[in-house]
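cron nightly-structures :: item 1 of 1
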Amino acid sequence: MPTFHPKTALKALVQMRVRKRPFVLSHGINAKCNLRCPFCEYWRTPGPEMTTEAIFAMLGDAKSFGIGVYNAWTAEPLLRPDLPDILGHAKSLGMVTSLITNGQLLSKRASELCDLDLLSVSVDGIDSYREIRGASIEPVLEGIRAAQEAGHRVLMNCVISRKNLGELEDLVRLAEELGALISFEPLHETPGFEGVWDEMGVRDSDLPDYRRSVERLIDMKKKGRPIINSLTYLRMVRDRRPEFRCHAPQIVLSVASDGTVATCRVHKEPLGTISEGIARVWESSTERRDEIVRECKGCLFFGYVENSLLYDFRPEVLAHYEWM
């Protein structure tokens, strides 16, 4: 399975900086999930989903607009029977295809994902996985192995919380044992989830352990372990300071399961709908997107930070860019 290389990064920069258009279509492909993770908001608000035909039309529009990556995620994409058809259509248009899954159904469907380029599986713990996700980790590990047997290279995603601080190094070792890559990002404090944050968020009393754990990840990264986060990003995570200029609303076109175009994962302000046409929604929302970025206090979502650093020509990110 291919990872990103300098030529793809160059295409992304031309699209974003010269044409002033997004390079990634991040699509919340469905509103259903087979898990009930307490820190996730997406399974809590099931609603309408775009039809296969509507998604095909959106992909054609996205390709015409210069978008080069289609990322399917939320709530659990593998619950959609038509997922292989959607990925296949995106691939036929010349787009890089990406999928984020909780992995519980992966062993059953890995063989269907022949048009998938980038496969990300959420693995937030080992012993703590059941407490965090409310399910067994074994189907996920089986799914990762099945995906690898089908020819996929796997990225394990870990959300850092109070529950798994003691397992971050073990997760890196697990990724090595499985022959996978791994990425980390901190749990985001979402409004309305105060109770969850009280239970899972890193408190002031946890900061010494937290910083020590992330510092260890930095050391492992320097030693060539399979962590794809940049050192620049990991230091921000360690210090809990989003010291970067955010370009997420300019880089990523975020589309919800019902076709609503939103600003980003943090600011979910609707900008329009896919049925209006991507170009029209994009052009009409320019001023508002700029305002939101200026007013935003920042986040540490991995994709937003790393792609913003790429946008700003940060040498470390340009030299080692591996995953969108």
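cron nightly-structures :: done
Strands lie at 24-28, 69-73, 96-101, 118-122, 154-160, 181-186, 252-255, 260-262, 270-273.
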